[in-house]
Design brief:
Blueprint (H helix, E strand, L loop, with lengths): L6 E3 L19 E5 L2 E6 L9 E5 L7 H12 L3 E5 L23 H27 L6 E6 L3 H8 L6 E5 L4 E2 H6 L4 E6 L7 H13 L4 E6 L15 H21 L3
Parallel strand pairs: 4-5, 4-6, 6-7, 7-9, 9-10
Antiparallel strand pairs: 1-8, 2-3, 3-5
Length: 257
């Protein structure tokens, strides 16, 4: 395990254990792909024939994440997300909305699941392509918190055309150096995992290397805003929905070039 000082976006912290559950009925289905449980949400109206790969935050498979995947499906994308936590998300370890359960070893949990995710994600992506892709299919990827490094890994490979993350974690300078596809960064002005100095350094790297990127920066919200906001607060709801909308439009542009 590398020292936290080596990270631009630090490993998930206690702020990632907090959040609100959202109401709604997910419409997707769960299948096993490459040995990993996978949520699949198909477009119900417009269908652009392309695929979004979804990399979850530490809450894994939960209602909010399913509804966000349905949101990308509403934008026209077959959306698939994997449970690299194997039914062991952090929300199982909360004694209340804001507090982790006593005795929960968050560091051990992260180490175990990061090792597994690092191992299975590349093969899962290939399996999704083999099962759902056609010669004309294009791919985008999006990750939240824990999912951000898997977005960056894919942007350094050849399958996806563009990627995005919101309130990222576990990112190092090399992730930004190696990425060679367009990146959308959806960020909170206040984020202890990806603070201003680190965010500015990431943008400097992207600019120095002449990468295509877009930074979306919201004031008045914190880490988790795009997935676990309080939907009863109009501004928080707006920010969450605007993040998804803007990411989908980023994909729309790059996947039609």
């Amino acid at each position: 395990m590398t020292d936290k000082e080596d990270y631009l976006a630090k490993p998930s912290a206690d702020c990632c254990l907090k959040g609100n559950l959202h109401e709604g009925e997910p419409r997707g289905k769960i299948e096993t792909i490459a040995g990993v449980e996978t949520y699949i949400s198909a477009p119900q109206g417009k269908n652009n024939g392309n695929i979004v790969l979804y990399f979850p935050d530490v809450w894994g498979f939960f209602n909010n994440g399913f509804l966000v995947m349905d949101g990308f499906a509403d934008a026209g994308y077959l959306t698939v997300g994997l449970d690299y936590f194997r039914g062991d998300p952090v929300w199982k370890y909360r004694k209340s909305r804001d507090d982790p359960a006593p005795g929960f070893d968050y560091e051990a949990w992260k180490k175990k699941h990061t090792a597994y995710a690092n191992e299975v994600v590349p093969g899962w992506v290939e399996a999704v392509k083999a099962q759902f892709g056609k010669p004309t299919t294009k791919y985008a990827c999006v990750g939240y918190c824990f999912g951000a490094p898997y977005v960056m890994d894919e942007l350094a490979r050849d399958i996806v055309t563009a990627g995005a993350f919101a309130h990222p974690a576990f990112l190092k300078e090399e992730h930004f150096r190696k990425a060679n596809k367009p990146l959308f960064l959806s960020c909170a002005e206040t984020d202890h995992t990806f603070p201003t100095e680190a965010r500015n350094r990431a943008i400097d790297i992207l600019r120095e290397d002449k990468k295509h990127y877009n930074l979306q920066l919201f004031s008045g919200v914190e880490h988790g805003f795009a997935l676990r906001c309080n939907m009863d607060k109009p501004y928080e709801r707006y920010v969450k929905e605007e993040s998804l909308r803007a990411i989908a439009e980023w994909f729309d542009f790059w996947l039609t070039q």
